[in-house]
Design a protein that fits this description.
Layout: H1 2-13, H2 20-26, H3 39-49, H4 56-62, H5 82-103, H6 109-120, H7 122-131, H8 146-151, H9 153-171, H10 173-185, H11 190-198, H12 200-210, E1 217-224, E2 231-238, E3 241-248, H13 251-273
Antiparallel strand pairs: 1-2, 2-3
């Protein structure tokens, strides 16, 4: 991650000669002059970081819902977390891409992209945010709908990405990566998200069921090689139509590859019909 952090800082600095710290300071709450986070939220942020935050105004902005911007009770205009959410989305995409690239060397580009999309979509991010009870600390404007906003998928996902953006600006890319490791990659749902994405046989069954088709049928087409190093070639059909073929040392792996080819073919067919 050190090399990644250095590369990212070079990219950030490319647009000018200001230091990384000076850029972070200018990205602080543009209008507010003091940090109004409650002691409970300051303690909460400290717990999430594992240390005290440096520029607490960044975290206040990260937690400020757009409903608060027009709050008549405030004495000065404030900035919502929408800009930080934009930054956090990019930082998170980079970090998840880096993790998947390093830890799934056998996965092709399409698989990696699809897996990343499953991890960083609003539903998954809201799930991660709920684990952290992040909704309890979102700063809202005057509204009778507070509870619904605090539990809404979009508000939680936006706040989660904004928090990552704030950590990146305040502490750097390595601290943001540490946060992603603790609260996404080590999350109980992470492996199930990845497994679901890569279990093509399950996806193919779901597809056939949703389209009221008979279940897919896997057939060993050929076996080649010595007994201790056989290669199995398997086909998968549905309604007697060939959907995919896969070859591997294990029958189960060959079936997965056949199902993968089938899903890619069906996805392409579905896209062309739109």
């Amino acid at each position: 991650m050190l090399a990644l952090d250095q590369l990212w800082q070079k990219l950030v600095a490319f647009g000018g000669s200001d230091s990384f710290e000076e850029r972070s300071e200018r990205t602080d709450c543009s209008y507010a002059t003091s940090c109004d986070l409650s002691p409970e939220t300051v303690e909460y942020v400290t717990h999430l970081l594992g240390e005290a935050g440096g520029t607490m105004m960044l975290y206040q902005t990260a937690l400020t819902h757009r409903s608060f911007v027009q709050n008549p009770a405030t004495s000065e205009p404030v900035e919502s977390n929408q800009r930080l959410e934009f930054l956090g989305d990019s930082v998170l995409g980079l970090l998840i891409s880096d993790y998947l690239f390093r830890n799934y060397p056998a996965s092709a580009e399409g698989e990696l992209s699809s897996t990343r999309a499953k991890i960083v979509n609003s539903r998954s991010l809201a799930s991660f945010a709920r684990t952290l009870a992040l909704g309890n600390h979102i700063i809202l404007g005057e509204s009778p709908d507070h509870q619904n906003i605090r539990s809404s998928e979009s508000a939680l996902a936006d706040a989660f990405e904004s928090l990552i953006g704030a950590i990146y600006l305040d502490k750097g890319l390595q601290k943001a990566y540490d946060f992603v490791i603790r609260h996404i990659i080590e999350h109980v749902n992470f492996n199930s998200i990845v497994a679901a994405e890569h279990n093509y046989k399950s996806r193919l069954i779901e597809y056939t069921q949703s389209h009221h088709l008979p279940p897919p049928v896997y057939t060993v087409l050929a076996e080649a090689g010595a007994e201790h190093a056989k290669t199995f070639t398997v086909t998968v059909t549905c309604n007697e139509q060939l959907l995919g073929t896969g070859s591997a040392r294990r029958k189960k792996d060959a079936e997965q590859l056949a199902a993968r080819e089938a899903m890619e073919r069906l996805d392409e067919q579905h896209a062309s019909e739109k």
